[in-house]
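Hey,

The postdoc asked me to send both predictions to you directly instead of through the lab channel. I've kept everything plain text so nothing gets mangled by the mail client. Protein one:
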Amino acid sequence: MKRSLMTGIGFGICISLAAQTAGTSDGARNDRAMDRAQTVGMRDSTQIAETTERTEADGTLNSARNPAATDSTNRWQLVWSDEFDYTGLPDQRKWSYEEGFVRNKEPQYYTAGRPENARVENGNLVIEARKESYPNAKYKPGSDQPAQAQYTSASLVTLGKESLQYGRVEVRAKVPGGAGAWPAVWLLGEDRGHLAWPLCGEVDIMEFLGRDSSKVYGTVHYADGARLYRHKGGILSSVRPTDGYHVYALQWYPDRLEFFFDDNNYFTFDISKADTYDHLFQKKFYLLLNLALGHTGSWAGPFKDEILPMRYYIDYVRVYKQTGNGER
């Protein structure tokens, strides 16, 4: 059942956060960052730096309400959405696809316009990862990519269809479980085609790792003024994302990014205090919804074929603009 358009706009105030020292999982994440940088052809003058900052919150602690939800200066207007109230392929007026082996040395091949991997049915967008042989359309003899993929999935994007700059992005979804599952809701800077990553910026509204089913992650990746790679994020623990549908949301203001799991604002990134390259979080981004598979050495870890097919259900995607100023 669809929730009302403004469901999820009232949410919990940010609870006390404790600093977490980077561990082995963040080491794997930095490896992932290097993979991504190499995938998109990062410029030589940008360097990868070991700069992990992460805060962790307990999902059982949220009780207070966020004053922003009742502040008369903080009104929201729906400006773009997909309710997935139709049947067939995703609406081509709103979505396009990434295609091929795209990033992080992940084993899945992203297909385009293929209902086996992305379809709308029963009021949901369904992204499905499958074990099957599928031809690699971009295969070149001598490359490190196989001529035939053994796994397929889908990555939907709004690039060229819809731009995002400030406001609230809200996705109600049910994530799949199982070690190696790696669904995400995230943003990339529209100028990544010529700036590359991380100069374009990345905002992970939600990442879920099936190997640890009690946590969700929200992370900001960027280059600083010296073109060094930085990332900062939050972890929400003691939650059960696979048990049902949850709202994953980002509120993007000129001075901060606020991350939400249902009513819990578990992480806030202070843009005003971050030394970002070329004010990248004041620029336009596009949205991505994808279901990746992990592998040995990756942040998500390896998977077993037995968990496939795997389905990621998205009930709706909504984008709001704020009519108030949003300043604190």
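Protein two:
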Amino acid sequence: MNQPLQFIRRPRLGDYLQLVRVWNLPTAIVDPYAGYLLAAQPGSRSLLHLCLVMLVSAFVYSTGMAANDLFDHERDKTLHPERPLPAGMIKRKAAGRFTGLLMLCGLSASALLGLQVLLLCFGLIVLTFTYNGWLKHKGLAGCLNMGACRFANMWLGIAAAGGSVGRLWPLPATLGLYVTSITLLSLQEEESVNKTGFYALVSPLLIVLLPLAGFAVAKLEREPAAWLALLPLTLLAMWLFATAAGAARSLNSASIGSVVRVAVTGIILLDSAILFSYGKQLEGLACALVLLPALILIRYAARRPSPSEAS
């Protein structure tokens, strides 16, 4: 009996972009962007260094996303069959080689910025693989690990500017706590949760914003433009509250996931508020405007055809 011919579909660029969650990349690169501009003296800023450290962040973030799917390959066959690996759009070996290439590019780019940035980049990669390979399903420990990743991501920018985390530590710490809260909430996408528990998990996302708002108000006397930080913080709080209220009507994986996506995208607004709180108006505005391409990329991801349609 003749066997039907089977055509092997070659991976496309869009498959690799999906593997690294390209729609979330803007939320990664704004962390070192903010860190660099906070630490660099106006006269010593280097556009090349700023672009390089953002590129390092993009490579490391992409490494982490690809590694996530490599570690979760078997699990994703059931929970996320639409992802490139379980859907067969990219072979596991090819994804492994791609992940290694991304990691090598990140380390190489960081080496151009000096030993401190290289060591931080290496440490961030270790944190990323520790999360994906060990702590992801370990509850609070995994959430704190993810928060530490974002702390280190902003620290990359500070180090690239030749600064130390020193007096600036509350800012990456705020980002780290915010991302820790997001990760706690994301764990519920695969578990059942009642409304009380859901709101208890959403509340920390809003509470983390309060110290930054208070910091901006406290700086008004020295930095009159610091009040601008309240605008992205208010927008983020309203966006989170509205999305959470809608999700609470029908708590399921999809509705909780929508809150997680808004919270992750909101990192852009959080970093913008941090810059505004230090009186960096143009820099904060530029950061906030990154929200537009981020939303476009999210729309691209939502409209991307399923594996069967793409074949």
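Summary for protein two, as requested: Residues 206 and 237 are 6 Å apart (CA to CA).

Thanks,
C.
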